[in-house]
UniProtKB/TrEMBL annotation:
InterPro entries: c-mor_Regulatory_Protein, Homeodomain-like_sf, Mor_transcription_activator. It comes from the Bacteria. It holds the Pfam family Mor. This is Transcriptional regulator. Coiled coil: none annotated. Residues 43-148 form the Mor transcription activator domain. It comes from Shewanella yunxiaonensis. The lineage of its organism: Bacteria, Pseudomonadati, Pseudomonadota, Gammaproteobacteria, Alteromonadales.
Length: 149
């Protein structure tokens, strides 16, 4: 990061950058020990960060991102630095995200005449599908109106 970029981030950005640089200088064995510990010894990282790192590594690998392990480790460190210990950060769980994606899919397939068909396809009542369509319509209008300002 350049000095200009660091000025855009909170005061601890320079410290975080220094930590990332130090982590990059570790050889692979030291890096693995730092993150995962050894068999009978506790890791330096909490298990939540280790799990987050593993999930991100798998996602990055599935998207053919080079250096996926190293990138995942650094992302986990950054996320931990900025969000760790905060009680006010809410991350939706998978079911909440699945519902949101399902609602968008229903909106995309809705043509004004297929309410009953969508209700059957998604295993819900026509009323619920209608409510989802109305919510998605409001969201679309809100997105478009922002562009008009």
């Amino acid at each position: 990061m350049t000095e200009d970029q660091l000025e855009l981030l909170p005061d601890d950005a320079a410290e975080l950058q220094e930590l990332l640089n130090r982590m990059r200088e570790l050889d692979p064995n030291e890096r693995d020990y730092f993150i995962n510990g050894v068999q009978d010894e506790q890791s330096h990282w909490p298990s939540t960060l280790q799990s987050l790192c593993a999930v991100m590594e798998a996602t990055l690998a599935a998207n053919d991102i080079p250096n996926n392990r190293r990138t995942a480790e650094e992302l986990a460190m950054v996320i931990g630095n900025y969000f760790g210990g905060r009680g006010d950060v809410y991350l939706p769980n998978g079911s909440r995200m699945k519902t949101a994606l399902r609602d968008i899919e229903i909106w995309r397939h809705y043509n004004g005449k297929n309410l009953a068909e969508l209700a059957q396809d998604y295993g819900m009542t026509e009323r619920r599908v209608y409510m989802i369509v109305a919510e998605q319509r409001r969201a679309m209008v809100a997105r478009k109106q922002r562009k008009l300002l």
